[in-house]
From TrEMBL:
Domain of life, per lineage: Eukaryota
BP-aspect Gene Ontology terms: neuron projection development; regulation of neuronal synaptic plasticity
Gene Ontology CC terms, in alphabetical order: dendrite
Protein name (record): Neurochondrin
InterPro entries reported for this sequence: ARM-type_fold (IPR016024), Neurochondrin (IPR008709)
A Pfam cross-reference name: Neurochondrin
Family: Belongs to the neurochondrin family.
Length: 729
C-alpha cells in the first residue's frame, strides 16, 4: 500500500472514526446498512495490513461523518480489535514517503473511537497504552501539521475517556500523565488548554496522588498560573480565580506564588465588582487562608489594609446572605467568608507580630460582631431536618471560633442559642461517622464544588469546647449548659477521646486536636468543680470520669511530651477527689493509691536544686521538663498542690502513702539545699501547706520531718505553721 493510501486511510477518522466525530448516532433507519455490514465483514476477514486498510477505507465510504452510533462503533471494534491499533502505535518504521507519525495517528484515532464506549475505555488494552499516549502530548513536530493536531486531539479524547472511568484517574497518574499534561500546558503548544482541563479533572478526583506523583511539574504549573494571575488585566483573572485553588499544594506553597496571588487578589478586591467577579476571589483567598494562615499576606501597611479589606468584605457578604429573607444563600461563598472571618479573629487576638494595627482590630471586631450576630440569627432558625447539612456545621464552626475568644458581647443571643448548640453537638457526637463526613463536605463547600481542602475538625463539640470553657465560668450560661445536659455529654466525649490515647492505639498518628480537646475538657471540668461542686457529687458521670483519671494518670506521667495533659489530669483528679472523698473507689484501693502516687510524682518533680557560678549555695530552679511549659503549667501546679493539701485530712491512708513515697523528706531536703532567697513566697506557701497537713495527719510524718531537720528548715523559711506543728509531740 502506498503512502497515499495510508493518508487516505488516515481520513477514516474524519469520515467517522476520528475522536472528534465519535458522537451518538443520527440513525437513518431502524435496520442496519447492508453495504456497511458487507464492508465490516471484509474488515473482519482481512488477512494482512493492506486488506485491513482497504476495508477501513470502504467502511469510511459507507458511513457519513458523524453517523457512527455506539452499536456501529462496537461492531467496528469487534472487526478490528486491539491488535491492529497496537501495531500502529508501536511501529517505528513508516512506508517510504510517509511522515513517521501517520501510522501512530491512525492508531490513536482508532483508540479514540473505541474509547467513546466507557467499557472499552476501561479495557486493559487501553489502560496499558497510557504511557505511550502521554508521550504524544509532548512530542516535537510541526505545530501546523493537521495530522499531528488531529492525533493530539484524539490523544486527549482517549485520556479524557479513561479519566471518566471509576479507576481511570489512578491509572492515568500511575502512567505518568500528570507530568506529561503539565509539560504540555507549560509548552503552550497545540491543545495546551485541553491539558489544563484534564489536569483540573485529575486533581479534583485524586489530589493527593497527583501531588505525590507530579509535585515538581504541578508546582511549575502553579507558578505559571500565579504569574498569569498577577499580570492579568482582562476577564481571564476571574477564570484563574476559579482554577487556582485546585493547584495549591497540600504542603508549602512557594513564596513567589504567594506574592503573585496576593497581589492579584489585592487588585481584584480593591475594585468595584459584581458578585460573580468578587465571589471566586473570596473563595481563592479563603483557600489561601486555609493553606497558609496569614503568611501569604505581606507585613506592613499594605498587608494590614489588605487583610482588613478581606475581613470587611467577608463580614458584609455574610450579613447580606444571612439577613436577607427570600433569597437563596450561596453557601460555598459564605463558608469561604467564614474562613476569612476566622483569619480575622486570629489576627485580632494575636499580641505579637500581628498584621493589624490597634484601630484596625477595634474596627474589625465591631464588624465581625455584627456578622456573628447574623450567624446566631441563622442558627436560631435551623430545624432538626437541617442539622446534618454542611453549611450548618460551617456556621457552628465560625461561632465556635468567635466564642473561643469573645463571650462578653452578644451574651443574651449566645445564651438563647446554647440549648440548640448542646443538642446539635450531641446529635453529631452520637453519629460520629456522619460528623466526620460533614467536616469533609464543609471543606469542599468552602473552596469549590469539586475539590476538598484542608480537613476541618470532625465533630461539632470540639469546635465549641473553648467557648464553653469561658461560659462555664459565668453563672447564667453555666446553668443553661447544666440544664441541657452538657456536663454528661462532655464526660462521654472525654472518655471517648481518651480511648484514642490508651494502650493499643498509635498515639504518634493522633492529631494534636485530640490532646488539645482533652485539655480543654479538663479546664471545663475544673470550672465546674469550683463553681458547681454539688453537680460533681450527684452526677454519676463524674464518678466514671474519676475512675478513668485514676486509672490513666500513672502511665500518663511516664510519657514524654505529655506533661501538660498529665498536669490537667492530675489537678482535675485531685480536686474531684476532695469532693468525692467518701466514694469507695477512693478508700485506699489500688487504683486510688496508684493515682496519688502519680500525682505526687507530678508535683514533686517540678523543681530541683541548681548550682550557680560563684556561689556556695544552690538555687531553686525549674526542672528541664517543666521549664519550657511552666507558663502554661504553673497555675495547674499550684492548684494541684492546694488540692492535694485538701485531700490529706479527708483520706486517712494518704499521709502514710506520701511518707512511703519519701516526698515530705525529699521536699525538706530540697529546701535545705538551696538559698531561701531563691524560693518565691508563693512556693514557700505551697510547700508549707502540704507539709503542715501531712504533719497534722500522721505522727510518723512528723517524726520523719524532724529527722530531716524540718524545724530548722521551717525557721529558715519563716514557715510558722509548720514550725508550730513540728513542735507538737
Amino acid at each position: 500500500m502506498s503512502c497515499c493510501d495510508l493518508a487516505a486511510a488516515g481520513q477514516l477518522g474524519k469520515a467517522g472514526i476520528m475522536a472528534s466525530d465519535c458522537e451518538p448516532a443520527l440513525n437513518q433507519a431502524e435496520g442496519r446498512n447492508p453495504t456497511l455490514e458487507r464492508y465490516l465483514g471484509a474488515l473482519r476477514e482481512a488477512k494482512n495490513d493492506s486488506e485491513q486498510f482497504a476495508a477501513l477505507l470502504l467502511v469510511t465510504k459507507a458511513v457519513k461523518a458523524g453517523d457512527i452510533d455506539a452499536k456501529t462503533r462496537r461492531r467496528i471494534f469487534d472487526a478490528v480489535g486491539f491488535t491492529f491499533p497496537n501495531r500502529l502505535l508501536t511501529t517505528k518504521e513508516a512506508p517510504d514517503g510517509c511522515p513517521d507519525h501517520v501510522l501512530r495517528a491512525l492508531g490513536v484515532a482508532l483508540l479514540a473511537c473505541f474509547c467513546s464506549d466507557p467499557e472499552l475505555a476501561a479495557h486493559p488494552q487501553v489502560l496499558n497504552k497510557i504511557p505511550i499516549l502521554s508521550t504524544f502530548l509532548t512530542a516535537r513536530g510541526d505545530p501546523d501539521d493537521a495530522a499531528r493536531r488531529s492525533m493530539i486531539d484524539d490523544t486527549y479524547q482517549c485520556l479524557t475517556a479513561v479519566a471518566g472511568t471509576p479507576r481511570g484517574p489512578r491509572h492515568l497518574i500511575a502512567g505518568g500523565t500528570v507530568s506529561a499534561l503539565c509539560q504540555a500546558y507549560l509548552g503552550h503548544g497545540y491543545g495546551f488548554d485541553q491539558a489544563l482541563a484534564l489536569l483540573v479533572g485529575l486533581l479534583a478526583a485524586a489530589e493527593t496522588q497527583c501531588w505525590k506523583e507530579g509535585e515538581p511539574d504541578l508546582l511549575a504549573v502553579l507558578r505559571g498560573l500565579s504569574e498569569d494571575f498577577q499580570k492579568a488585566e482582562d476577564a481571564s483573572k476571574f477564570e484563574l480565580c476559579q482554577l487556582l485553588p485546585l493547584f495549591l499544594p497540600p504542603t508549602t506553597v512557594p513564596s513567589e506564588c504567594l506574592r503573585d496571588l496576593q497581589a492579584g487578589l489585592a487588585r481584584i478586591l480593591g475594585s468595584k465588582l459584581s458578585s460573580w467577579q468578587r465571589n471566586p476571589a473570596l473563595k481563592l483567598a479563603a483557600r489561601l487562608a486555609h493553606a497558609c494562615g496569614s503568611d501569604w499576606i505581606p507585613a506592613g501597611n499594605s498587608g494590614s489594609k489588605f487583610l482588613a479589606l478581606l475581613v470587611n468584605l467577608a463580614c458584609v457578604e455574610v450579613r447580606l446572605a444571612l439577613e436577607e429573607t427570600g433569597t437563596e444563600v450561596k453557601e460555598d461563598v459564605v463558608t469561604a467568608c467564614y474562613a476569612l472571618m476566622e483569619l480575622g479573629i486570629q489576627e485580632c487576638t494575636r499580641c505579637e507580630q500581628s498584621l493589624l494595627k490597634e484601630p484596625q482590630k477595634v474596627q474589625l471586631v465591631s464588624v465581625m460582631k455584627e456578622a456573628i450576630g447574623s450567624v446566631i440569627h441563622y442558627l436560631q432558625q435551623v430545624g432538626p431536618e437541617k442539622q446534618k447539612e454542611p453549611f450548618v456545621f460551617a456556621s457552628v464552626r465560625i461561632l465556635g471560633a468567635w466564642l473561643a475568644e469573645e463571650t462578653s458581647s452578644l451574651r443574651k443571643e449566645v445564651c438563647q442559642l446554647l440549648p440548640f448548640l448542646v443538642r446539635y453537638a450531641k446529635t453529631l457526637y452520637e453519629e460520629a461517622e456522619e460528623a466526620n463526613d460533614l467536616s469533609q463536605q464543609v471543606a469542599t463547600l468552602a473552596i469549590s464544588p469539586t475539590t476538598p481542602g484542608p480537613t476541618w475538625p470532625g465533630d461539632a463539640l470540639r469546635l465549641l469546647l473553648p467557648g464553653w470553657c469561658h461560659l462555664t465560668v459565668e453563672d447564667g450560661p453555666r446553668e443553661i449548659l447544666i440544664k441541657e445536659g452538657a456536663p454528661s455529654l462532655l464526660c462521654k466525649y472525654f472518655l471517648q477521646q481518651w480511648e484514642l490515647t490508651s494502650p493499643g492505639h498509635d498515639t504518634s498518628v493522633l492529631p494534636d486536636s485530640v490532646e488539645i480537646s482533652l485539655q480543654t475538657c479538663c479546664h471545663i471540668f475544673l470550672n465546674l468543680v469550683v463553681t458547681a461542686p454539688g453537680l460533681i457529687k450527684r452526677d454519676a458521670c463524674f464518678t466514671s470520669l474519676m475512675n478513668t483519671l485514676m486509672a490513666s494518670l500513672p502511665a500518663l506521667v511516664q510519657q514524654q511530651g505529655r506533661l501538660l495533659l498529665a498536669a490537667n489530669v492530675a489537678t482535675l483528679g485531685l480536686l474531684m477527689a476532695r469532693l468525692l472523698s467518701t466514694s469507695p473507689a477512693l478508700q485506699g484501693t489500688p487504683a486510688s493509691r496508684g493515682f496519688f502516687a502519680a500525682a505526687i510524682l507530678f508535683l514533686s518533680q517540678s523543681h530541683v536544686a541548681r548550682a550557680t557560678p560563684g556561689s556556695d549555695q544552690a538555687v531553686l530552679a525549674l526542672s528541664s521538663d517543666y521549664e519550657g511549659i511552666w507558663a502554661d503549667l504553673q497555675e495547674l501546679w499550684f492548684l494541684g498542690m492546694q488540692a492535694f493539701t485538701g485531700c490529706v485530712p479527708l483520706l486517712p491512708w494518704l499521709a502514710p502513702a506520701a511518707l512511703r513515697s519519701r516526698w515530705p523528706q525529699e521536699l525538706l531536703q530540697l529546701l535545705g539545699s538551696v538559698s531561701p532567697n531563691s524560693v518565691k513566697p508563693e512556693m514557700v506557701a505551697a510547700y508549707q501547706g502540704v507539709l503542715v497537713e501531712l504533719a497534722r495527719a500522721n505522727r510518723l510524718c512528723r517524726e520523719a520531718m524532724r529527722l530531716q531537720a524540718g524545724e530548722e528548715t521551717a525557721s529558715h523559711y519563716h514557715m510558722a505553721a509548720l514550725e508550730q506543728c513540728l513542735a507538737e509531740p
